[in-house]
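User: Hi! I'm a student and our assignment asks us to look at how structure tokens line up with a sequence. Could you show me two examples?

Assistant: Happy to help. In each example below, the sequence comes first and the structure tokens follow. Example one:
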Amino acid sequence: MKKFVSVLILTGVLVLPGFVLAQDLVIIPDVNLKNAICDELSKVPPCVLTNQDLAELEELSLNDPPGDEKIINLSGLQYANGLKLLRLKDHSISDISILISLSPFNLEDLNLRENNISDISALGAGFASLEDLDLRDNNISDISSLVANSNFGVGDKINLKGNPLDGEDCNDLQSLEDRLGSSGDLDHDVDCDEDEDEDEDGNGNNGNGTVGEEIISSGLSPCEMKHEVQGCIADMTDPDDEDEETDCNKKAGANSCNVEVCCLLDMVYTIADWIFVILLVVAGLFIIWGAFGFVLSGGDPEKVTSARNKLIWALVGIIVAFLARGLVILVTQIIAK
């Protein structure tokens, strides 16, 4: 009876935390985003983040980081339902669709200035508390989603300067300006007092952006974007024009981050997180299997030995899982530098 109780206690101590951690673990592929969240929560990066950790996150601010600390992917941030302030200026973010999953009643201040954002349809609904929206210096050419969001109103602030908007957006801009009222603030670069014809530049562009901006607005992933940049450089009208080549790279985020390295780190980190979870689950199953082996052994030495071996291998698996995950994190941090 004592042996049976001991087995149950051992099973509870070793298995339950593993299962709870596996079910509650939040996987954040972007190493820089994860480190920023760890810092904000006063955890030493790299750290293990859970749903509870993300639920406690109210503010996240990382502006003008060096090139190797720029965030590309916001995946995982959807669990931060208590987030009130998000300021990520001067990163390489192009996809903000994950923001749709945030709680619509908490976010008050959103600053994504100087990124590579072209699609802002995620801001077309919800966000009842959003008061300050800064989207300066992106690649936004369609603001219909902002107009569709009826939650923007008197006193709110929206900054759209530095985006390729033109006279066709004047009706939407006027609609937003009317809703914000005199106490609100809508900043943009469009001169809606004059009717200007669209300027055709003869190179397939409509005068609203450069070749590099077209690459970003295509919605490609960072890995695919690298190939587009290379093709962009190969097709330059003037192969000796350094400014044109810089535009191809800078607008696609290649200057702010080595895209091939970023893609590799994202892939390795994601795979490592999944393997970590799988190993914990498998180890937990082995512990349960070994515990039942003890209970059903009936004192048979061979069965007792077999059950003990299962527990030992389960413990070894848990140790290896944590060591391997730590090693992967260490290696990715070294590569990122």
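Example two works the same way, sequence first and then tokens:
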Amino acid sequence: MLHIRIREYEHKTVNKTLKEEIHRLHADLCQALSDPKRILILYELRNAERSVSDLSEKLGIRQSNLSQHLSLLRERSMVSARRRGANIYYSLTHPKIIEALDLLREVLSDKLHQISRLAGKISDGQAPKAKASRNGHG
């Protein structure tokens, strides 16, 4: 597994091609999180591995659709699979995946709280003044 220290990355000891590859891999991980069903799947795997049928029943996702999502998550190394008899069981590859999702939820919560405060001010007649654009018009 590729492990590059942030300090090495920031101090340009990593060549440009490797940096571009790191950014591409990072974007691939983020893209895997772009579907709400995949986020639900990851949270469902938070504490224990689950079979496809268990995930399908618990999340209300058809097995064919669930398999597509699990396949993408496997390609991105976010989940792993093991076969036991006729069943396939999935688990998280790393608990930090959930930590990352939780951090994103905190950012979302902060944003929603900010919007809620703004909406409260508007409903109280305290609408914020419009900011002037950079070109001075508007």
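Here is something you could point out in your write-up. The mean pLDDT is 86.
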